[in-house]
Each structure stands twice: as structure tokens, then as C-alpha cells.
Specification:
Blueprint lengths: L9 H5 L1 H5 L5 H4 L7 H29 L6 H28 L4 H5 L14 H10 L20 H11 L4 H10 L5 E2 L2 E2 H21 L6 H22 L1 H9 L7 H12 L4 H35 L11 H10 L4 H4 L16 H7 L2 H5 L1 H24 E4 L3 E7 L2 E6 L2 E4 L5 E8 L3 E11 L5 E12 L2 H6 L4 H18 L3 H6 L1 H15 L5 E12 L2 H83 L3 H17 L18 H25 L1
Antiparallel strand pairs: 1-2, 3-6, 4-5, 4-7, 8-9, 9-10
Length: 682
Amino acid sequence: MKKPFPPIYYSDYLHLEKLLTSQSPKSDEYEHHAHDEMLFIIVHQAYELWFKQIIHELSSVLELFQKDNVDEKNIGIAVSRLRRVTMIQKLLVEQLNVIETMTPLDFLEFRDFLIPASGFQSFQFRLIENMMGLNIESRVKLDDKNYYLLVSDEHQKMLIDSQNTISLFDAVDKWLSRIPFLKTGDFDFWSHYKSAVGTMIENERQIILNNPSLTEEKREKQLKMFEGTKEKFEALLDENKHNELVKQGHRRLSYKSTLAALFINLYRDEPILHLPFRFLTYLVDIDELFTTWRYKHALMVHRMIGAKVGTGGSSGHHYLMQTAEKHKVFKDLFDLSTYLIPRSELPGLPEEIKLKLGFNYTFKKQENKMEIGAIVILVIFIVITFLKTARVVPQKSAFIVERLGKYNETLEAGFHILIPFVDRVAYKHSLKEIVMDVPPQSCITKDNIAVEVDGVLYLQVMDPIKASYGVNDYSFASVQLAQTTMRSEIGKMQLDKTFEERETINAAIVNAIDKASEPWGLKVIRYEIKNINPPASIKDAMEKQMRAEREKRALIAESEGDRQARVNRAEGEKQEAIERSEGEKMKRINEAEGKSQEIEKVAMATAKGIREIAGAINEKGGSEAVNLRIAEQYLLEFGKLAQKNNTMIIPGNLSDVSGMVATISKVFSSMNKKETEVIINK
């Protein structure tokens, strides 16, 4: 089949060209570019788009409820559309988180360009308030001006027209006033409700009067508060008082509508009232979410501009905070919780009313169900009798059987037959090891540090009879005993010791519980501490202490290493000096011995040479040879006198070489004579 519609382009369908080109930052226009102005524009444009959708949804609901008779199917439609409005409102609140990514400094970059434009000029939001039914007398005025004077002439006309048309509040008021069931035949809900309220109020009064824990001053104070509650109920119970409150502006719903709304809230579980209850609940949700949005908007404005005047000339966040409190529409529905009474004290509805409030198909089948129910009851009775007669006890389990309320026997693993309705299994115990978690608790150490400690307790039922009758709940008792013992043991130790002495603490707890649980038929196997959590400040201090301790050990180790290195170097230098001195000593000894031997050898050689010379001198011509040799040596040495120094000491008889030689010859002669004598003597 050929498609009868022409194709359409995504961008054309959404008019994206118009939508995406409708952002014109004023900062760019004035050549003072502010990056975050684009975000500011888009978020507020998104608000206006969502406002348009909310108006679309509320208009459809108004259209459904303006009729004299509201079709029950239309209530379901209205509920789904109001739910959609609440989902949109939650997005409105979340969008404030997006705009809060802009800092106050970024906002100040373009704020002055926006004056006097302001969110107060959003005619769509004012239109929503009018459609909801906000009372014009309840509106917070801006500089003593009517709210519609802040917008253009065209938008003023739209807002004024919306004030003169029926609002959602008016439509709901008329719809509630037509709700039946409040008085049908012999049933008068109101009289039954008055009776139930009177009983409840008197009970509350007696509780206050007979409460022994209250002082006279507190009792008087609570009685005054009780009188205030009583007056509120009296205003609900008396139509004239209610109408007077409406005239004074304290109430808005009519008397019949208030009763109908209360009836719906009290009997919300009846099928036909469930959708009306959801409808009223969503009206309250819408009011609450708009209040949340106004309040968070006020906080955002306070954060952005502080105590400055807003761009629209208002007092900023103060004005928004006032609207959050005073611009509620369905305040009467909020107050209904004051008049609710417990389900157990609700007046019972006659079968005729229940039939009208329920599903007809259900009641038509009720008689057949009663017959089937009797058969089912009989079958159930037979099954229960069999189950009470035959019992199968699993492995590692024990059942305690009482006969007419008194202990009869303990059933071990296997199949057993009991007397139905006479014997009953009063207690079931597992004989396996039981692992119980001991919840975290705060303990005070000996040095007054609060730590949070938890653990695991392992125990086993050894005597099922004692476990049944020795204590009401052995699991609870064991855990409580473990906690009290833990507090006691932790209180005896310093914080540092609690981490080191876990085994000691565990043993103490096991010992304490084992002694106490002996009459309960239990055996405590072990206890393990899982975590010891000191406060964050103590953790920081401990980390600093450990860091300081590690640094201290590092410094000590470094100093020990340096000291050992110095000692080793000193020992090495000492040993080196000793070895060097020993070597020097041996060297000198060797040199001395060498010199001694050298001197001795030289002396012996010299002596031998002298003897040889002496012998040669004594031979024939020896003296002349000596004289000639002396003269040669004299002349040779004399020739060297002026080679090294300019100054010379010259003998006076320099020319008398022969005399000098003669003198020397005499010396040699005398020495030769003595030498000869020595040799002869030898």
C-alpha cells in the first residue's frame, strides 16, 4: 500500500533551524563575549518549552473535569497526565543543577545586559499558576504591583482571561462535591466517623493524663497541643465552623468536597476509590514539586547574586522564598493527614457500599467461591492434620516436642509420628556450628578513644532442651553478651594495644560467653574480631605517628650505618698506620743494618787500602810518589776554586807550592811512622 503522506525531514518537522538559531547572547551584541550566557539562555528556553507541555497537559485534564459528570475512565487518563506533569517538574528541579555549574563571577559578566528582563516575566508560568487555581489574594506582590503588569499587553490579556475561567482547583472542588457513598440508605459515614474520632481523641487525652513519665509542666504543654488538635477536628465536624474558616481564607475546599476527599483517603484500598486517591495524590505532588522548584530557585538566586537586587527589580531570593510558602494551591489536601485515623478504627462499610465500591464481577462470583472455599478449607484441614502427624527431622537437627504445652521428647534425625493437635513441635534447633555476625558497636578504650568494633561468633547447640528453655533467644543473648564483654575488654586497653591483643580479647570473650551460655546448652567454639575502626582523626594521628616512627628508624639506621662506616674507616686507618709503621720500622732496621754493613765494609776496605798505601809508601821511592800525588791533587783542586763562587779565600803563600807539599809530606811521614809502629805492635 502506497503511503498517502509526503515524506518529511527530521529538522523540518522540529523546526530546528528556528529553534537552534534563537539564541542571541547580549554579551556578543555588545562585543563583550560571556561564554556562560549561552547556557543561561538555553536552560531558560528549555523551561519555557516544558511550561508549554505542562499547560498542554493541564488543559486536557481541565477539559475532562469541567463536565457535569466525569467518566471513570477519564480519571485514569487524568492520573497518567498529571503523573507526566510531575515527571516534567522533577526535570525542572534538576535543570537548576545544570545552571548552577555557572559561577557567580561568570553570571556577572553578562547580568547587567539583562535588565529589566526577569523570570518574573514568564507569562507561561503565571498561566500555569492560574490554571492550577492560585488565589489572586494569596499572590506575593512585587513592589506592590499586580503580577500581570510585569508582562506585555498581549500576555496581560491572556493572564487576565485565565483568571476568569474555571481552574483545576474549581473543577476538582465541584467533582469532589458530587462524590456519593457518604450517606447511603442506613449508612451515614459522617456519624460513624465522628464516633471514631471522639473515641480516638478521648484515648489520646487519657494517654497524656496517665503517662507517668511526664512532668506536670510537660503534661500541661501536651494538653494544650491536644486542645489545638481537638479544635481542628471540631472545625471539620461542624459545617458552620468550616464555612467560617473558608470566609477567613484558612480553607478553600467546600465542606462536602473536604468530606469526600477525606473519605477517598480513608478508604483508598477500595477498588473504585483507588484512581481518585491517586488523582488527589498527584495534585499534592504537583503543588509540592512547584514549592521545591521555587525554594531551590531561591537558593540558586541567593548563591548567584547574594543580597543584590534582581534583574527584574525584585528583592531577589527573599521574594522567591515568600512565593514558595504562599503559592500553594491544594493546601487543603495537604491538611487532610490531620484527620486520618488508624485503619483498625475505620468505620466498617456495609456490604451494599462495598459492592458499589468494588468490582461487580468479584461479587457475582462470591457465592460460588464460598462453596469452593468450603471444599478448599476441608482439604487444607486434612493436609494440616497430616503435616502435624508426620514429622521428618533432618540430619544434624533436633526438634523439641511439647504435649499440651509441656515438654515431652526430643526428636532426632529421622521420621516420627505425633499425636495431632496434642503434640506440637515447639522448637527446632540446628546442631551444626552456627556463625553469627556481631554488629559494630562503639567501645571506649582506656585512653578514652571511641573505636567501632565488630566480630564473628561461632557456637554450637549441645543440649537442645536447655537451648529451648534456658533462654528466650540464645542467638540474641550470645550476641549481646559478646558486645558487652567486648566493651569491657576494650576498656581495659590502650588504643595501640587493641590492635596487638586481638587473640587475648577473643579468648576473653569466648571464656565469658562459654561460662554464661552453659545453662543455655551452648558451646562457644571461637570468636574473631573482624574490624577495629578508630575515628578518622585518630587514624590520621596514627598514620602520622607511624610515619614519624618509620622516619625515626630510617634516621637511626642511617646514623648506625654512618657510625659503623666511620668505625670501620678508623679501624682501617689504624691498621694501615700500624702496618705502615711496622714497615717503616723494618725499612729503617734494614737500612741501618745495610748502612752498618756498608760502613763496616768501607772501613775494612779503607783500612786495607791504607795498609796497602802505607806499605807502598815504605817501599823505595814511595815518599816521592806521595809528594808527586799530593802536588797533582793540590793543583787539580786549586783549579776548581773559581768555578762556583765569585768570592775566594786564597792562601797567602799561594806561590809556595813546594812548601805546602813539604808540609803535607811531613804529615804523611809522621802518620806513616805511627802506622808502622802500630803494625809492628800488632
